[in-house]
Amino acid sequence: MQDRHTLATMIGALAFAVTLHLIPGDAAIPVAWVRVVAWAAFAVLLAWTVFDLWAWRLRPILRTWIERPDLHGTWRATIRSNWTDPTTGKRLDAIEAYMVIRQSFRSIRLQLMTAESISEVLEASVLRAGNDRFRIAAIYRSSPTRAPRSDEQHVGTLMLDVPGKRPKILLGHYATDRRTEGTIELRGRTRRLLRSFREASDVFARRERRARKDAPRRPDHTTPQRQAA
Q1: Cis ω on the peptide bond leading into residue 60 (within 30° of 0)?
Q2: What share of the chain is helix, strand, coil (3-state, %, to 5)?
Q3: What's the pLDDT at 70?
Q4: DSSP-assigned beta bridge partners for residue 138
Q5: Is the dihedral of CA 213, 219, 222, 227 positive or negative?
Q6: What dihedral angle (degrees, nearest 10) is formed by the CA atoms of 128, 134, 139, 144?
Q7: Residue 73 region, left (φ>0) first, then alpha (ψ -120 to 50), else beta?
Q8: What's the CA gap between 208 and 206, in Å, rounded?
Q9: Which regions of the chain are under pLDDT 50?
Q10: For 184-193, how does the pLDDT look when each residue is reduced to its tens digit (9 = 90+)?
Q11: Are the CB atoms for 96 and 85 separated by under 8 Å?
């Protein structure tokens, strides 16, 4: 939402600057200085928008001075819940998931996708935890993707630990209004903002196949046995 407000402000400033530029130079009102101010304001807004959406992640030019982790992209996630099946008494197996993080300098938005549900973050904040560490605190709403029912929807809280500005692994804990809780681990990222669980699963599966194909083969150091004479 903040990005839309910035874009709307930029368009308004540009329209104002163009309108003033079209005013005749011999008009009764002095507009030369107003034109300069309008174009300067538009230039500042443009520079801020570029910085907010993209340039703040540049390295090493800006990253060394900016206290903000770079988490933008789609992460592979593993969820472990303490929920127990009342009929069998067994806990759920680990759940494959993918988290899409859309991040600008000012804002961060999270979406968690599993094969059966989508969780949308209602509010999220990046907090300083000291010693180049951060935390993401979020409130989310989860809805099933197949035959959704109101009793299957739930809300919860999420806390993610972020070890550094460019972490490789994120670990977190969540709790829901259904009195369940669990852990979540994010490991492996693509810069692409993927749109569905199936798309994300396919993309990461292809990455794994390429990684196995490109990995150097380990030499065989076994000593051949001598044949009996």
Answers
A1: yes
A2: 30, 35, 35
A3: 85
A4: 124, 158
A5: positive
A6: 170
A7: left
A8: 5
A9: 1-4, 28, 227-229
A10: 999 999 999 9
A11: no
